[in-house]
């Protein structure tokens, strides 16, 4: 069944790959991004994939008015929205002690506030219909500090995780027909590394031990999520056990990462039982 799907950050990377795959399935798409030329090209190719109806809306999703305009164009064109994907995001290549106010503000605006605007823009429409799906694209780094130079990006994505889970809890009580999902990719072969503020320093050995995924692979996971909604999904299945080990004993895990090999799977008994657990 054809759905109306909004994708932000759709001019490249995961967003563009997702648009192509959904277009091939015949879904009606509303694609949003700042880069007009690239966005229009993605929209053209997605529309040709299977004669899918696709519109492009040039927008800066760090501006609430632009996000509202994306929603309005979607409703004016198709009369409804079934799925809203908050995909826009940007990285940074600075460690905690090197961050400026501007760095942190930029990360929060692009990675958190843009998604907040999207959730607030579309939720009333979905609540009125009693059905729909909000998908927020986060990062594996929001759970485990494998790359310390992504500090502010990881922090922003962790904030996005919290907003997502709280919205899901709220809507589960009042509107159980609305799904709210979190997607956690790992390292993906896109222009993300090149476009990160401050560049991308060389990662430490073993940082990519779980492998690197293509944007198409990540997009395929999101397509399956749209078909079968769940609360959270790691696009790389090897990363979920790592997150579990991390939260079982943060100290032991981090000490293991500083030394050879991988972090220990069990708790660190040298300091007594671990009291750190996910909240």
Describe this structure in words.
The chain is of the alpha/beta class. The protein has two domains: 241 residues, NAD(P)-binding Rossmann-like Domain (Rossmann fold); 31 residues, no CATH class. It has a seven-stranded parallel sheet, sandwiched between helices. Strands 7-8 form a two-stranded parallel sheet. Strand 5, helix 5 and strand 6 form a beta-alpha-beta unit. The chain is globular.
* Content of β-strand: 5-15%
Percent range for helical residues?
A: 40-55%
Give a short account of the largest sheet.
Answer: 7 strands, parallel
- Order of strands side by side in the largest beta sheet? 3-2-1-4-5-6-9
Secondary structural class: alpha/beta
Query: What order do the helices and strands follow?
Result: EHEHEHEHEHEEHEHEHH
CATH homologous superfamily annotation of the largest domain:
NAD(P)-binding Rossmann-like Domain
Stretches where pLDDT is under 50 for at least 5 consecutive residues are 260-279
How many individual domains?
A: 2
Mean pLDDT: 87
State the helix count. 9
Calculate Rg over CA atoms: 19 Å
Look up the CATH topology of the largest domain.
Answer: Rossmann fold
Overview in brief:
The protein has helices at 13-24, 36-49, 64-78, 101-129, 151-174, 192-195, 215-227, 239-248, 250-258, and strands at 4-8, 28-33, 54-58, 83-86, 132-137, 178-184, 188-189, 213-214, 232-234.
List the helices and strands and how they pair.
Layout: E1 4-8, H1 13-24, E2 28-33, H2 36-49, E3 54-58, H3 64-78, E4 83-86, H4 101-129, E5 132-137, H5 151-174, E6 178-184, E7 188-189, H6 192-195, E8 213-214, H7 215-227, E9 232-234, H8 239-248, H9 250-258
Parallel strand pairs: 1-2, 1-4, 2-3, 4-5, 5-6, 6-9, 7-8
Helix pairs in contact: 1-2, 1-7, 3-4, 4-5, 8-9
